[in-house]
């Protein structure tokens, strides 16, 4: 509905501008013709700028990280948009396939590659969720070289 209204508004302004241009064009005296053209408001038929999309804040980007509908990142996407850092609250001693892992920032990620690992007990280990170039997410856990494939569920 907004688009239709905008289209009608712009086309109406363009028609009004065209009418003024035709009126000026019909004048034969050059001085009068120039005055007529100068009297036409410049903004009458100016194109309406498209609304600018709000740039998300770092906190909003972190909260939505992994929940995007488009998986693969854009080529020009800054490096800080390709990962988030948090921690796993409390004691952590590994994972098994299909397990849910809740991060301190409230995000919940599921192990989706069927992997498992038994680790020496870690207390509040720092983690980084990284998105690779094809859009797959991996959970890097401090204190281990294993990085299970994950998918955000909450």
Write a structural description.
This protein is α+β, with helices and mostly antiparallel strands and 154 residues long. It is 27% helix and 25% strand. The protein is built from three helices and eight strands; from the N terminus they run αααββββββββ. The longest helix is centred in the N-terminal third of the chain and has 24 residues, at 2-25. The two termini are 34 Å apart. Residues 4-13 have low confidence and may be disordered.
Features:
single chain; 154 residues; alpha+beta; six-stranded antiparallel β-sheet; 3 helices; 25% strand; rod-shaped
The proportion of strand residues reads: 25-35%
What about the largest sheet?
Answer: 6 strands, antiparallel
Order of helices and strands: HHHEEEEEEEE
Residue stretches low in confidence (pLDDT < 50, at least 5 long) are 4-13
Helix-strand makeup class = alpha+beta
Alpha-carbon distance between the termini?
Answer: 34 Å
User: What spatial form do the alpha-carbon principal axes imply?
Assistant: rod-shaped
Mean of pLDDT: 78
């Amino acid at each position: 509905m907004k688009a239709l209204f905008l289209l009608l508004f712009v086309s109406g302004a363009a028609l009004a501008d065209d009418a003024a241009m035709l009126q000026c064009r019909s004048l034969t005296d050059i001085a009068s013709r120039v005055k007529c053209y100068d009297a036409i408001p410049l903004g009458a038929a100016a194109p309406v700028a498209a609304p600018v999309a709000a740039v998300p804040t770092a906190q909003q980007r972190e909260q939505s990280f992994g929940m995007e509908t488009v998986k693969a990142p854009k080529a020009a996407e800054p490096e800080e948009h390709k990962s988030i850092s948090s921690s796993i609250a409390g004691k952590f001693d590994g994972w098994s396939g299909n397990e849910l892992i809740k991060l301190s920032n409230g995000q919940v990620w599921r192990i989706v590659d069927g992997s498992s690992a038994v680790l020496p007990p870690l207390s509040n280990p720092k983690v980084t969720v990284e998105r690779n170039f094809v859009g797959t997410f991996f959970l890097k856990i401090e204190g281990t070289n294993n990085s299970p494939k994950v998918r955000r569920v909450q």
